[in-house]
């Protein structure tokens, strides 16, 4: 009786492990981009970084929505996390801090014109800048991204109540300010 119970529990455990493994394998991919395209093939991906087992991508969805997603590498490959996005300004008027988006609790980002001449700071820490001219010229033109940069900041602690400031890089003049 005890032997049958051990065999039954072992077989059930193996079956559950097999089902989990097959499910995990079907949602894992060899490259982070593949994981994202398996969710939505029409995304225009903007890679930020790929460090060890973590990658950050921004994306344009339906030509007028900017979003962000983390992709993690697991045992069987890369898996996409939660995609979040919101509409971009139709006029692409990003001379000032016209808004920002938060992904999860620790990532804040937005768009800015003339990012090579601007500095965005969150509570005194400098945000990173991604020049959207890195995309193929046909994509930049189609999506009307000429002269735009994505600024983003990742924090170890949840973002709440921080101050976002925009500065002229050459003069140090404060151009705009927002509070989370």
TrEMBL record:
Keywords assigned: Aminoacyl-tRNA synthetase, Ligase
Keyword Ligase tagged: yes
GO molecular function: aminoacyl-tRNA ligase activity
Name of this chain's protein: Aspartyl-tRNA synthetase
Source organism per UniProt: Lysinibacillus xylanilyticus
């Amino acid at each position: 009786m005890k032997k049958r119970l051990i065999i039954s529990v072992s077989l059930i455990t193996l079956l559950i492990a097999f089902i989990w493994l097959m499910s995990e394998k079907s949602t894992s991919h060899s490259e982070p981009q593949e994981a994202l395209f398996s969710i939505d093939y029409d995304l225009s991906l903007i890679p930020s970084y790929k460090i060890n087992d973590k990658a950050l991508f921004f994306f344009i969805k339906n030509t007028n929505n900017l979003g962000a997603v983390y992709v993690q590498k697991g045992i069987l490959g890369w898996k996409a996390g939660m995609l979040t996005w919101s509409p971009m300004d139709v006029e692409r008027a990003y001379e000032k801090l016209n808004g920002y988006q938060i992904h999860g609790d620790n990532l804040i980002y937005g768009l800015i014109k003339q990012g090579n001449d601007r500095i965005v700071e969150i509570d005194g820490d400098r945000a990173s800048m991604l020049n959207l001219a890195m995309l193929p010229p046909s994509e930049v033109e189609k999506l009307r991204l000429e002269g735009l940069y994505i600024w983003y900041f990742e924090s170890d602690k949840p973002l709440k109540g921080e101050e976002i400031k925009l500065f002229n890089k050459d003069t140090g003049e404060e151009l705009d300010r927002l509070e989370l």
